[in-house]
Amino acid sequence: MSRALPLYSVHAVNTAPDSENKIHDDRVAAEYGFRGGLVPGVTIYGYMTVPIVELAPRWLEHGSIQVRFVQPVYDGDVVIVRGLVNDDGSIRVTAEREDGAVFANGTASLNRTAEPPAGPELIALPVERPEATRETIVSGAPLGTVTDRLDALEPRRLLQFSNEVLVRNFKLGPWIHVSSEVNNWSAAQSGEEIRAHARVHDCFHRKGHEFIVADVALIANRRRLVQTVRHTAIYRIANARTPN
Questions:
Q1: What number of CA atoms fall less than 13 Å from residue 123's CA on the CB side?
Q2: Distance (Å, rounded) from C-alpha 177 to C-alpha 170?
Q3: Given a cut of 50, is residue 243 above it in pLDDT?
Q4: Angle, alpha carbons 130-135-138 (nearest 5°)
Q5: DSSP per residue over 115-164, as a string?
Q6: How far apart are CA 37 and CA 29, in angstroms?
Q7: How buried is 85 (Cβ within 10 angstroms: 0-12 exposed, 13-18 middle, 19+ buried)?
Q8: Number of helices and strands (H, E) in the chain?
Q9: 22: which DSSP letter?
Q10: Burial of 83 (0-12, 13-18, 19+ CB in 10 A)
């Protein structure tokens, strides 16, 4: 029989109001019909992992999750995270409003669902980032490697590397993180050097939006696989419209 995990509730914080991605800016987001700057997907992801990590801390070493963001979250919104352990051991997790409307949903497992990638290649970042277009985003093409020190052990910080891959390889306008398929391979440690290797998996358009899908592998200290991600984003949002 399935069982519920303890609820986790938090007031959402827009952690990126001043970022290069202006979808987190109140004024720009309003031009696309939103009532304010969007709380980043990686921040919502971080909220959703809280009950998972509390249940099984080793999920950070060998677990997986597929998460999709379906409704915008705004600064100050109450986010209620519900977790339900299924009979097969998987965990259904949702981030909801107080009225029960779902912001995001996902399914986590205490086991990985992917195979480890082949040894990733170090690729130089572009000196000048090209505009993100159908012509410059090529399926199968390698992307420049992002290297940085890990300054926090929060799950959202690791997933942020997948965002950084997109930002450091392309000039992007306002863009939206749509979904991520995450596999954890080992626990990262604060202060470790992380290299984010990536390749374009796919690009497509749907309902006026332009999408990019990137496969990302995080390597700690040049030798240990920490995380792999299939990361999907809308890099070009359908035409701006009058705010509601």
A1: 19
A2: 15
A3: no
A4: 90
A5: PPPP-PPP-PPPSSPPB--TTT--TT-EEEEEEEE-----HHHHHHHHHH
A6: 5
A7: buried
A8: 4, 11
A9: G
A10: buried
Question: The tokens 């942020």 sit on which residue?
Answer: 160
pLDDT tens digits for 219-241?
999 999 999 999 999 999 997 65
> 226: burial class by Cβ within 10 Å (0-12, 13-18, 19+)?
buried
Q: Whose CA is closest to 219, among 131, 127, 148?
A: 148
At residue 34, what is the residue type?
F
pLDDT exceeds 60 at position 155: yes
Helix (H) or strand (E) holding 60: helix 59-62
Report the C-alpha dihedral over residues 206, 141, 178, 9, rounded to 10 degrees.
Answer: 170
pTM, rounded to two decimals = 0.95
For the packed helices 41-55 and 155-169, what is the interaxial angle rounded to 10 degrees? 150
The tokens for 25 are 């800016």
Structural domains for the chain: 3-236 (3.10.129.10)
For residues 197 and 120, the answer to whether their CB atoms sit within 8 Å is: yes
